[in-house]
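Checklist before submission:
- one chain only
- standard amino acids only
- sequence pasted in full

Submission:
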Amino acid sequence: MANQLVQDLIEAGIHFGQRASGWNPKMQPYIYGKRNGIHIIDIKETVKGLLLAKRFIAKTVADGKDVCFVGTKRQAKSVLEARVPDVKMHYVTERWLGGTLTNFRTIRTRLKRLEELEGIDAGADGFTKYSKKMESQLKREKRKISRNLEGIRHMEKLPGVLVVLDVRKEHTALKEARKLGIPTICLIDTDGDPDAADIAIPGNDDSMRSIDVVIRELCLAISEGRQNRDMTRNAEAASGESAGDAGQPRRSRRAQFRAADAEGESAEGSTPASPSRPEASKV
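Returned file contents:
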């Protein structure tokens, strides 16, 4: 499997970095060499970072937390929109709105507004019951909210980890995640800053194919985490039921006691009254 992964990564061109003239010296540990003025990324470091990221994501999802992917560059948009919904996670492919994480309550308010607008649009008359001007404003508002927040409309709480595909472009998202203590996993090219990520995956972030391989692997880790989460829940439910069965004798004894007491009382009530003593006056 690891050999197949390495082959996929190489065929996707993930080892091609940026021009050497624009590199970030902090990326030195991840660079294998230089060819024709372009840095070559050490594929071993890429695999190492990717496997570490997969383990972390699988554990995070198994613990009941969600993952949010951020990739607003053109090469990442189609990949995220194709793969992430299949694993029922969240993504941002349009402009990152400042406060998406740090002002999450406002974001949820905007999503409720989107649901309200969709409800109006789905009604019998739709937006046509309003004036032309108002109809145009409502349609524009609906398109804008849907375009910016469609990928996170089902995100009910802050994510457990943020996956970022370009640390230079998505620096606002990274700052918000760091402020809230949300771990970050980043695909970092040779011109990026690895200190911006908690887990760095050195690789070409301009290639759609390399992005696709990385996202594919991370989505597989999410599926694995979901399976572990379901197994844990099933095991807890089963242990709860067995605990209930195990506790049944204790409850049963109490129930038996109450039942015996009730039976005794009913027996006393049903037993014919003993003949009363003759009254003294009749003796």
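Reviewer check: Strands lie at 16-19, 31-35, 38-41, 67-70, 90-92, 161-164, 184-188, 199-202.
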